[in-house]
Amino acid sequence: MTINTKIKHHQAQLKKCTQCPDMFGPPVTGNPIASPIMLIGQAPGDKEIIIPKPFAWTAGKTLFKWFKQLGVDENDFRNLVYIAAVCRCFPGKKPRGGDRVPNLTEIKTCSHWLNAEIDLLQPKLVIPVGKLAISQYLSVKKLTDVIGQIHQVELNGIQVDMIPLPHPSGASTWHITEPGKSLLQNALQLISNHPVWKKQTE
C-alpha cells in the first residue's frame, strides 16, 4: 500500500469518527497528500464543517495571504502542505460568542488521528498555528516567546523543525500590532528559507 493510499484510508476512517459528544461534525480533513510539511490548526469553525475543508473562511483568507507573500497561493498550498488540526470537529460556540476551545478530553481523544498522520508522513517541518496547537508541543506562556524562531522538537520519535505562527483570527490583533507583526514576518521568512519548504515549492 502506497503512502497516498494509506493517507486516503486514514482520512476515510477519520471522517467517520463520532467519539466526542459535544463536538459538531463531520470531521474535517485537508487534501490527502504525502507531504514532508504539516500545518496544524486548532479546530474547524462552523463554516468549515459545511464546506468542508480546513481554513475555508475568514481565518483562512488571512492565513493564505501570509503564504501568498512567499509566492504560494491557496490552491498550491493545499496541494503542497498537509493540513491537520488538534481537533477535527467544530467545538461549538461559547455562550458569549466566539468558538469554544476544545477541552482536554476532546484534545486527547482526537490526538490519535494526528499522531497517526505524523507516523505516516514523518514530517520534517511542522507549522503549528495558534496558541492551542503550539502548546501541544512547546511550552508557551506568551506567543512572543516562541514565534519568530525555529524549534527542534521530537515528535513520535522523529526530529522535526517547528516554526509556529499566530492564529489568523479576525478576533485577534496580535499579528497586526508590534511586536507580533514583526515576529510573524520573521516566522514566514524562516519558513521561506527552510530547505524542506524550498524543495517542496521549487
What is this entry, summarized?
With about 200 residues, this protein is of the alpha/beta class. It has helices at about 5-15, 60-70, 75-80, 105-120, 130-135, 180-195, 195-200; strands at about 35-40, 80-85, 125-130, 150-155, 160. The protein has a 5-stranded mixed beta sheet with strand order 2-1-3-5-4.
Task: Walk me through this protein's architecture.
The protein has 202 residues and is an alpha/beta fold. Helices cover 37% and strands 11% of the residues. β4 and β5 form a beta hairpin. α1 (3-14) packs antiparallel against α4. The radius of gyration is 16 Å and the shape is globular.
What is the element layout, followed by pairings?
Layout: H1 3-14, E1 37-41, H2 58-68, H3 74-80, E2 82-85, H4 104-121, E3 125-128, H5 131-135, E4 151-155, E5 158-162, H6 180-193, H7 195-201
Parallel strand pairs: 1-2, 1-3, 3-5
Antiparallel strand pairs: 4-5
Helix pairs in contact: 1-4
Tell me, briefly, the overall form.
Answer: globular
What is the CATH superfamily label? Uracil-DNA glycosylase-like domain
Mean pLDDT: 96
CATH architecture: 3-Layer(aba) Sandwich
Kindly report the CATH topology: Uracil-DNA Glycosylase, subunit E
**Head-to-tail CA distance between termini:** 28 Å
Largest sheet: 5 strands, mixed
DSSP helical segment count = 7
Q: Based on DSSP secondary structure assignment, what is the total number of beta strands?
A: 5
Helical content stands at 25-40%
Low-confidence stretches: none
Radius of gyration, in Å, reads 16 Å
Structural class label:
alpha/beta
- How many discrete domains? 1
CATH class category name: Alpha Beta
Q: What is the strand arrangement across the widest sheet?
A: 2-1-3-5-4
DSSP strand (E) fraction? 5-15%
What is the N-to-C succession of helices and strands? HEHHEHEHEEHH
